[in-house]
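User: Hey, my collaborator sent me this sequence without any context and asked if I could get a structure. I don't really work with proteins. Can you help?
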Amino acid sequence: MGSACFSRDVCLFILLINTCRVMGNVGLADVDECAEGSDDCHIDALCQNTPKSYNCICKPGYKGDGKECEDVDECENDYNGGCVHECINIPGNYRCTCYDGFMLAHDGHNCLDVDECLDNNGGCQQVCVNTMGSYECKCKVGFFLSDNQHTCIHRSDDGMNCMNKDHGCAHICREAPGKGGVSCECRPGFELAKNQKDCTLTCNYGNGGCQHTCDDTDTGPVCGCHQKYALHSDSKTCIETCAVNNGGCDRTCKDTATGVRCSCPVGFTLQPDGKTCKDIDECKDNNGGCDHFCRNTVGSFECSCQKGHKLLTDERTCQDIDECSFARACDHTCVNYPGSFECLCQKGYILYGLTHCGDIDECSINNGSCEFGCINTQGSYECVCPPGQQLHWNKKDCIEAVKCLPNGKPAPRAQLTCTRN
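Assistant: No problem. I've predicted the 3D structure and written it out in C-alpha cell form, which is a compact way to encode the shape of the chain:
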C-alpha cells in the first residue's frame, strides 16, 4: 500500500499514508541544561539557559568566567570595603565590625561610640566619664582611684605613700619603699610620661579616643576620618558629609563645619529629624489664596474656578466670563449672570437648545384662532378670509365684504328692525 523507507529514514504509517522524514532534518526541542543539571557552571555561578546552549555567570561577590569563580575580597580595596574600623571578608560578601567601645551604625559601615556610663555607671564606684571608644572612673575630692580603676580609696595624710593625696600618679600608684616611697604605672593602652607620673593615651586604648582612624605620635594620638567623612572641630569625631548617601537628606544637602545641613525646596518643610522633607498643603491655609477651588500638588498647589469663570494671570483670582461678549452667543437677546448667561427670544419665537431661537408656527395651534385661513410668517402669522369676505378689525374673524352697484356706489346696507314681542 505504500513505498518502503530505506536506511537513515523513519517510516510513519498514519491513516494509510506513509511519510518518510530524513533523520538529519528532524528539529529537536531545546534542552534546558540548567534545569537538568547537565551544565558545567561553577558552584558559585548562576546557570542561564539559552536556545541550544546556556551561559554561566558568577554570583555577586564572585569573579570569573562562570566556569571558574573566585571570591572577591571587598576588604582589599583602598576603601577597606567602606568600613571605618575592621572589614571581614566572607564568601561572596563582607561585613564591618567595630573596635571595643564602639557599635556598628545603621548603615553597616560607620562606628559610633558606646556610652558605657549609661550601663550601671560603667562599674565605677563614684564618677564615670564617657570618652570616645572608652570611659574612665574618677573619684571625688578626698579619694583616689584604686588599682582596679573602679573603686575609690580614702586618702591618708600620713607619709609619702599611695594613701597620700600628693603621690601624683595619674593612674596607678604602687608602694615602693626603695624608690622614694611610691612609683606610678599606667592603665593598659597608656604610656608613662617622662615625668614618671602622667599617662599618655595611645591608639591601643579606646582607639585613642578617635571615632575612625588613630595614629600614635610623640604628642599622643592623632585622629583621622575615612573617605567622605570630615573631622569634627573636637579633632576626634567624624561627621558625615553630603558625599555619603546625600548626608541622609531627602533633598538638598550642604556641608558645614558641624556636619551636614539639610534643606527643602519651596513647597516642602523640613521635619523634626532635620533630614526629611514633607509636602506643604497650601490649601489648608486660607484656601491657598484661591478665590474658588484649591488643589494641593506635590511641592505646590493649583487654583481653579467654578463654571462660567476664568482664572486671571495672578493664578488665584476668578473673574466672571461675559458670555454675551462673544459673537453670536445668542440668536436674539443675551443676558449675562455671574457664572452663567441666558438667551431670550423675541415675540413669535421660542428658545430651543441654549442659544437658538426658532419661529413659532401659530397656525399649528388651533389655526392661530383664525376663523378661516391662517398663514404663518417669521415671528408672526396672519388670518385670511375666503372670497366675498374680508378680515374683521380683530384680525381673526371674517365678515361679508361690501358690494358695489353697477354705478359704482355701494349697495345700501341692510336695515334691521327690532320689535318687542
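In plain terms: The chain has six domains: 1-72, 111-229, 245-279, 282-320, 323-359, 370-400. You can pass these C-alpha cells on to your collaborator as they are.
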